[in-house]
Automatic annotation (TrEMBL):
TPR repeats lie at residues 199-232, 233-266. Pfam families: TPR_19. This is Uncharacterized protein. It comes from the Bacteria. InterPro entries: TPR-like_helical_dom_sf, TPR_rpt.
Length: 539
């Protein structure tokens, strides 16, 4: 915050100087920079007021262009409000809030003025609020809610002036529940549903009840929504998710089966169905099928996070696991003499991260390493560079330097997957290199190469039997390794089409290793690793 204020003050000073010289366009550029750093600073708005006295109200100094700078957009919104056109400025301000919801773009007097809520056409305000709701999260992150509350205040003023506008009540309910005001959301949604019964009104009401913890009433409202439109399978998925979250998995799967019987390719039903079946029995096959569906249906109606939710915080499915305190890995014979080039190190620093949403996302994120030659990728594996000088790199270097080295090797191996992709997998150089790395011993390089092979099995069904057989052999070889047995067992459990025998063997290894770890690993170290993961995932 101190840095932002200093930056804003610097831009503000340069804007004043430019304005004194008559260089209004330069002044506007610096003012846009200042408002981006400190959007509610009074001195900025005083200077904007000087520009607003121009014949055109200063609007031509802040043009709306494709990929416009957020400070320019916000400045224009304030000038429109000053010109008596707040209904034109509000959509711009809401767009800025959707871009960065945690920034206090709306914390200015004209947004919270009761007169704005009275004057604005309620349908327009409802549409602005609905668009804002699609961008701020459901629920909105708690840390950023204060910056969004001026919009809720505005809706309250508008509802008092237009108490019978059903769409405004529903949109206001959607915003209220996202900001933690569940009871207000219920009141507005209830009134809206009484004024104009409809599918959408019942959906708003069902979500409001769910946020308030009133689950039977939520389910009743969502079932009424189904009666309005029996072919909207997204509502079936919402009902199923709500039932599952409250311990009624059989009923939840029944709703999913009903949806899939109507349309086996409905994206909401398929995503929810695989997520719930995985929750029910823990079978990785559900997630693999979901990944296959996502690959084959890249034009889904909207973005889904079910696969990422199922993989979250699971070793190898979403992160490089921290290794236990143990003796050093056995030394591997050097397979690359030279060090990686600076350009290769730079590209690895851009790509490498200890977390990813799910294996196919890790594969996609490694695409940037296609510009690093295989020889350099091998050098990065043999000689992992120091962590990058950024927030994540410094945290890893300070708290878990071994995790960074493993992370670097993992991403270098993922990079190998993107070379000579035209070659058929069984005879490809990328397969040969990774198999050689995986078979070179039982060490950190083994697990990095195995993860790359497993990731490829997620994205290419034709490679699954080959990779599953290789992982099974490596699992047997690692069973006696006190350092890596637990990690490689988790790799095995992340492998598509692994045989039931190997899956049982991996589960037994994990159970035995974790039992031993409870007796030997200090609790403080486990806590430190968990805190580090949460810190990194929040960035």
């Amino acid at each position: 915050m101190d840095d932002s204020r200093r930056s804003a003050d610097g831009d503000l000073e340069r804007a004043r100087a430019a304005l004194d010289r008559g260089e209004v366009h330069h002044a506007a550029d610096h003012l846009a920079g200042a408002i981006a750093h400190a959007p509610t600073l009074p001195e900025i708005h005083e200077l904007l007021g000087r520009l607003a006295t121009r014949a055109d109200g200063g609007l031509e100094l802040f043009p709306l262009e494709q990929h416009a700078f957020v400070g320019t957009v916000v400045a224009r919104a304030h000038l429109l409000a000053a010109a008596g056109r707040p209904e034109d400025g509000l959509p711009l301000l809401a767009a800025a809030s959707g871009h960065t919801p945690g920034v206090d773009w709306a914390g200015v007097p004209w947004v919270s003025d009761p007169g704005l809520g009275e004057r604005m056409e309620p349908g327009l305000l409802a549409r602005i609020v609905m668009q804002l709701c699609t961008t701020i999260g459901d629920p909105a992150p708690e840390a950023g809610r204060a910056a969004l509350r001026p919009y809720l205040t505005l809706v309250g003023h508008a509802v008092r002036a237009h108490a019978d506008h059903a769409m405004l009540l529903g949109a206001g309910s959607a915003l209220a529940r996202r900001l933690g005001e569940a009871e207000q959301a219920v009141r507005w949604a209830t009134r809206g549903a009484r004024l104009r019964p409809s599918k959408l009104a019942e959906i708003w009401l069902g979500y409001a009840y769910r946020s308030a913890g009133r689950i039977p009433e939520s389910l009743a409202a969502l079932r009424r929504a189904v009666m309005y439109d029996p072919d909207d399978l997204s509502v079936y998925a919402d009902i199923a998710g709500t039932l599952a979250d409250h311990g009624r998995m059989d009923d939840a799967l029944d709703w999913i089966d009903r949806a899939l019987a109507k349309n086996p390719d409905d994206d909401c039903a398929v995503h929810t169905g695989h997520r719930l079946r995985y929750r029910a029995d823990g079978d990785l096959a559900h997630l693999v099928r979901l990944a296959d569906f996502q690959r084959d249906h890249f034009d889904d109606t909207h973005e889904h996070t079910d696969l990422a939710e199922c993989c979250a915080d699971q070793p190898w499915l979403s992160r490089v696991p921290s290794g236990p305190d143990s003796p050093p890995d056995p030394a591997r014979e050097p397979f690359v003499a030279g060090a990686p080039t600076p350009a290769a190190v730079e590209r690895l620093h851009r790509a490498a991260h200890p977390l990813w949403p799910h294996p196919p996302a890790a594969y996609d994120a490694a695409l940037g390493l296609v510009l690093v030659e295989p020889e350099d990728l091998l050098a990065l594996i043999a000689h992992p560079p120091a962590a990058p000088d950024d927030e994540v790199g410094r945290a890893l270097a300070a708290h878990d330097p071994d995790l960074w080295r493993r992370c670097a090797q993992v991403w270098a191996c993922l990079g190998l997957l993107h070379h000579r992709t035209e070659e058929p997998w069984p005879f490809s150089i990328r397969r040969r290199l990774l198999v050689d790395l995986a078979k070179g011993g039982v060490d950190r390089i083994t697990e990095a190469a195995l993860f790359a092979l497993i990731t490829y099995a997620w994205v290419d069904p034709a490679a699954r039997s080959d990779v599953a057989a290789l992982v099974g052999r490596r699992l047997a070889a690692a069973a006696g390794s006190p350092t890596l047995a637990w990690s490689i067992a988790h790799l095995a459990l992340a492998t598509p089409d692994l045989s039931p025998e190997n899956r049982e063997r991996a589960a037994a290894i994990i159970k035995a290793e974790e039992h031993a770890a409870l007796l030997t690993i200090p609790r403080q170290r486990n806590r430190r690793a968990g805190l580090l993961r949460r810190w990194i995932s929040g960035r």
